[in-house]
TrEMBL record:
It is found in: Cell membrane. Keywords: Calcium, Cell adhesion, Cell membrane, Cleavage on pair of basic residues, Glycoprotein, Membrane, Metal-binding, Repeat, Signal, Transmembrane, Transmembrane helix. The chain crosses the membrane at residues 545-578. GO terms for molecular function: beta-catenin binding; cadherin binding; calcium ion binding. Pfam families: CADH_Y-type_LIR (PF01049), Cadherin (PF00028). This is Cadherin-4. InterPro entries: Cadherin, Cadherin-like_dom, Cadherin-like_sf, Cadherin_CS, Cadherin_Y-type_LIR, Catenin-bd_sf. It is a single-pass type I membrane protein. GO terms for cellular component: adherens junction; catenin complex. Gene3D superfamilies: Cadherins (2.60.40.60), TCF3-CBD (Catenin binding domain) (4.10.900.10). It comes from Cephalopterus ornatus.
Length: 739
């Protein structure tokens, strides 16, 4: 709202507000612009905490003098549908007699909504979601949508067919609108109670029982020190434990009544297929191998009105006594327990013990795990106590419909040993142990507001009521987050993220958002969404240049990167060319091996030079004999110098091998010699080479006057003292007469 004084045209006026929500607790819920008089709300408001505010607005001049009388401002918080209905109980128990007529009252379920009950936000409506089992009809019950009263809607309730119904009831606000309202569910367990509408009747008049022939089954049980020896079926089942079942008497037999009562007893029918079970106490096989009994069954209570049948029935039973090892059994199988998830390791859950019918054999029962998919449980091998080996997690993949199943084995040490199995079902109640995660993780927005926004939501691994509605908030630190961004709530699961300021430089920004669920206690998580801010066109789409700029690289930076890449590629290319040239030079020089390192005979190439100017005092015409070279050069008539390189076409010669094989060095030298003799382009072109001119005459005598001696008187043994290089000469010429 905006307040304004009509005197603001004459003097400068400053506006202020006082009262609860301004300068009284809760403080600073509202603020006012002292110049323009515009009032703002500073933080989200919750109608369930405070539904209205009474403020007073003041107008003063620059000296603090009152200009106008204070005015009253009444601010009412409009209710939003941010609270889902909550049932008083999660599980409701009720009962109804079998055969009840349609419209019979069963029970009432109640859910409360914290929202405004005068609006649709707080108006709760009920409906039945599922009914299990759906027999004899899928709609056996109905519920009053406004009061929550559950009544029968169809006939056919028969306890002997269906003893219990599980009904899932849903409460939805917004007057039951499933598209906009928030919902919650509860479970209604309806037990069908028995009425005396079935007279007892045995299916057979005589029964012969041999326990050893029946095998080891879990029907051979011990009841208060009695062992099951036979079962007699009734044609019409009766309620287990019901007073309408009545008692059973023993007629006169070949044994006395006291003996019969001390050795045999009869059970109340139980289970889905009601039967009369006969139990025997300490029967001695060596004393009595068989018993003959007559059993009578009757009702203690009269049959229901309108049933005209006999109230009792009899049957004969022949019992043969044998001794067999029977398997242990679990009295409650499947056993269901309920607990919250997350209980610590080592917590005792229950004792899942088995009973061994062979109580007189002094057998020990040992327990072990047969199936524990997640390896969460341990069982005491002696007493069957179940403890947790790990933390139970309802969100695990091993949980099906909130139930975790494990199977245990109970085995005795009889001969032969026998074993029985039992299934433990653990119903895990969800706790708020998973914080919500923000979605999406990345988004794009224009650098100027009012062009587009980012829709955000959250995902939570928990289930109702530990999920939505979610609360989306911006953290106060760093301060730039709230300065640049703002969040607008859409509904319980969605919100919008948008720019608060008029312009934000293009780039990628990490925007932290606090997401809080509706669990008890609530959990929150600070998630970061990467927002790419970029320039946009008129359609609100990010431009190509804007996308590059948003990535954090300017035009200058991109050009510098491209130049660096070109320089790097040029350096690599030059390095490759240099390496190829070096490799080529290395191949051309492989024949020039250091003589110090090579002990083989090699042809060494030395520089050859002609004579200087002072050494040209000779007649080269003596070497020019073209008439004697015709058969070699095959030239045309005329005079041709042979000490110059031929001008004509040069013949092609085979390429000389670069690296000769060490074993073919002789062939290599001969081939090179032939190629040099036949190559007219090879220097020195048969020219006379003068290395030095020492003038005419010499003080030394002619070397031709030296005569070589072949008398063998020369001693070459001193060559042995000249080292290994002269060893070959010493071996050839040394040795005296022995050579």
């Amino acid at each position: 709202v905006q307040i304004r004084s009509d005197k603001d045209k004459e003097i400068h006026i400053r506006y202020s507000i006082t009262g609860v929500g301004a300068d009284q607790p809760p403080m600073e819920v509202f603020s006012i612009d002292p110049v323009s008089g515009r009032m703002y709300v500073t933080r989200p408001m919750d109608r369930e905490e405070r539904a209205s505010y009474h403020l007073r607005a003041h107008a003063v001049d620059m000296n603090g003098n009152k200009v106008e009388n204070p005015i009253d401002l009444y601010i009412y918080v409009i209710d939003m549908n941010d609270n889902r209905p909550e049932f008083i109980n999660q599980v409701y128990n009720g009962s109804v007699d079998e055969g009840s007529k349609p419209g019979t009252y069963v029970m009432t379920v109640t859910a409360n909504d914290a929202d405004d009950a005068t609006t649709a936000n707080g108006m709760v409506r009920y409906r039945i979601v599922t009914q299990t089992p759906q027999s004899p009809s899928q709609n056996m019950f109905t519920i009053n949508s406004e009061t929550g009263d559950i009544v029968t809607v169809a006939a056919g309730l028969d306890r002997e067919k269906v003893q219990q119904y599980i009904v899932i009831v849903q409460a939805t606000d917004m007057e039951g609108n499933l598209n906009y309202g928030l919902s919650n569910t509860a479970t209604a367990i309806i037990t069908v109670t028995d009425v005396n509408d079935n007279p007892p009747e045995f299916t057979t008049s005589t029964v012969s029982i041999n326990p050893s022939a029946r095998g080891r089954t879990d029907t051979q049980r011990v009841r208060n020190s009695w062992m099951l020896i036979s079962t007699v079926s009734l044609s019409r089942p009766l309620s287990a434990g019901s007073r309408k079942w009545g008692g059973m008497g023993l007629p006169t037999t070949t044994c006395t009544r006291a003996l019969l009562h001390s050795h045999f007893a009869f059970s109340q029918p139980e289970g889905p297929r009601e039967k009369i079970q006969h139990f025997a106490a300490a029967v001695d096989y060596e004393m009595n191998r068989a018993f003959m009994l007559t059993v009578m069954v009757s009702n203690q209570a009269p049959l229901a009105s309108g049933i005209q049948m006999s109230f009792q029935s009899t049957a004969g039973v022949t019992i043969s006594v044998t001794d067999v090892n029977e398997a242990p059994y679990f009295p409650t199988n499947h056993k269901l327990i309920r607990l919250e998830e997350g209980v610590p390791t080592g917590t005792v859950l229950t004792t899942f013990s088995a009973v061994d019918p062979d109580r007189f054999m002094q057998q020990a029962v040992r327990y072990s795990k047969l199936s524990d998919p997640a390896n969460w449980l341990n069982i005491n091998a002696t007493n069957g106590q179940i403890t947790t080996a790990a933390v139970l997690d309802r969100e695990s993949d091993y949980i099906k419909n909130n139930v975790y199943e494990a199977t245990f084995l109970a085995a005795d040490n009889g001969i032969p040993p026998a074993s029985g199995t039992g299934t433990l079902q653990i119903y895990l109640i969800d706790i708020n142990d998973n914080a919500p995660e923000l979605l999406p993780k990345e988004a794009q927005i224009c650098e100027k507001p009012n062009l587009n926004v980012i829709n955000i939501t959250a995902a939570d691994a928990d289930i109702d009521p530990n999920v939505g509605p979610f609360v989306f908030e911006l953290p106060s630190v760093p301060s730039a987050v709230r300065k640049n961004w703002t969040i607008t709530r859409l509904n319980g699961d969605y919100a919008q993220l948008s720019l608060r300021i008029m312009y934000l430089e293009a780039g990628v920004y990490d925007v932290p958002i606090i997401v809080t669920d509706s669990g008890n206690p609530p959990l929150y998580n600070t998630s970061v969404i990467k927002v790419k801010v970029c320039p946009c066109d008129e359609n609100g789409d990010c431009t190509t240049i804007g996308a590059v700029a948003a990535a954090g690289l300017g035009t200058g930076a991109i050009i510098a990167i491209l130049i660096c890449i070109i320089i790097l590629l040029t350096m690599v290319l030059l390095f490759v060319v240099w390496m190829k040239r070096r490799e080529k030079e290395r191949h051309t020089k492989q024949l020039l091996i250091d003589p110090e390192d090579d002990v083989r005979d090699n042809i060494l190439k030395y520089d050859e030079e002609g004579g200087g100017e002072e050494d040209q005092d000779y007649d080269l015409s003596q070497l020019q004999q073209p008439e004697t070279m015709d058969h070699v050069l095959n030239k045309t008539p005329g005079v041709r110098r042979v000490d110059e390189r031929p001008i004509g076409a040069e013949p092609q010669y085979p390429i000389r091998p670069v690296i000769p094989h060490p074993g073919d060095i002789g062939d290599f030298i001969n081939e090179g010699l032939r190629a040099a003799d036949n190559d007219p382009t090879a220097p020195p072109y048969d020219s006379l080479l003068v290395f030095d001119y020492e003038g005419s005459g010499s003080t030394a005598g002619s070397v031709s006057s030296l005569n070589s001696s072949s008398s063998g008187d020369q001693d070459y043994d001193y060559l042995n003292d000249w080292g290994p290089r002269f060893k070959k000469l010493a071996d050839m010429y040394g040795g005296g007469e022995e050579d």
